[in-house]
Design goal:
The protein is an alpha/beta fold. It has a single domain, classed as P-loop containing nucleotide triphosphate hydrolases (Rossmann fold, 3-Layer(aba) Sandwich). It is built from ten helices and five strands; from the N terminus they run βαβαααβαβαααβαα. The protein has helices at residues 14-25, 32-42, 45-56, 62-75, 91-103, 118-132, 140-154, 157-162, 176-196, 198-206; strands at residues 2-7, 28-31, 81-85, 110-115, 167-171. The longest helix is centred in the last third of the chain and has 21 residues, at 176-196. It starts with a strand and ends with a helix. The relative contact order is 0.18. The structure holds adenosine monophosphate (AMP). Residues 10, 32-33, 36, 53-54, 57-60, 65, 86-87, 89, 93, 136, 146 line the site of adenosine monophosphate.
Length: 207
């Protein structure tokens, strides 16, 4: 199984790269933002509660997103692997993801972080807000709050994967296809290492 965490602040290009990656590697895309927006569209109670936080640019409680990921993993038992986009956003979410994947005899292969400067993020998100219909993309104060939340609450998740030697950072500015090529290079390097040492990887999962 090939499980990748695509990481980075809002507007870094995770959604765009995810679409290309799922087509290239035949993976299932799990975006907690998309899953939450689907709940909002369906008018569920979870969606209504999440919407208030999302519209303000704040994080939804860990147990809500972990529950959604748990269900999604169980609903996709036959998947070749997953791209996690916008999840995990806190260390407890990362710990839960490791536990959930272990239940499916799987693990995260690598995290690829897309790095983009704040001013570029704000410009991109305001531009996206013209067509995305997302209230959190249409107001500069909310956009900057999301970036602050990323810096204060989410950025430390990188350290969690770095400690497992799974963290790779890339410059997320430039042509989409160039960035895609660099993301693929990281993933292919990880797969090549797996092919060389499949036994070690299996032992890790069982540990
Ligand atoms: P995104 O589509 O990833 O930009 O997420 C939009 C919003 O959904 C975020 O600003 C949060 O309010 C919420 N959200 C998405 N994923 C998570 C997560 N893993 N943990 C907490 N909140 C999340």
């Amino acid at each position: 199984m090939l499980n990748i965490v695509l990481f980075g602040p809002p507007g870094a290009g995770k959604g765009t790269q995810s679409q290309k990656l799922i087509a290239h590697y035949h993976l299932v895309h799990l975006s907690t933002g998309d899953l939450l927006r689907a709940q909002i569209a369906q008018g569920t109670e979870l969606g209504l509660r999440a919407k208030k936080l999302m519209d303000e640019g704040l994080l939804v409680p860990d147990e809500v997103v972990i529950g959604m990921i748990d269900s999604a993993l169980s609903a996709n038992e036959e998947a070749a692997g997953f791209i996690f986009d916008g999840f995990p956003r806190t260390v407890p979410q990362a710990e839960s993801l490791d536990r959930l994947l272990a239940q499916h005899r799987a693990q995260i292969g690598c995290m690829v972080a897309l790095e983009v400067k704040e001013e570029e993020l704000v410009t991109r998100l305001l531009e996206r807000g013209k067509t995305s219909n997302r209230p959190d993309d249409q107001d500069e104060t909310k956009i900057r709050r999301r970036v602050t939340v990323y810096n204060t609450e989410t950025a430390q998740v990188a350290g969690y994967y770095a400690a497992q030697h799974k963290f790779h950072a890339l410059n997320g500015t430039g042509a989409i296809d160039d960035i895609f090529g660099q993301v693929c290079a990281v993933i292919d390097q990880h797969r090549a290492a797996l092919d060389e040492a499949p036994a070690a990887a299996t032992e890790e999962v069982q540990a």
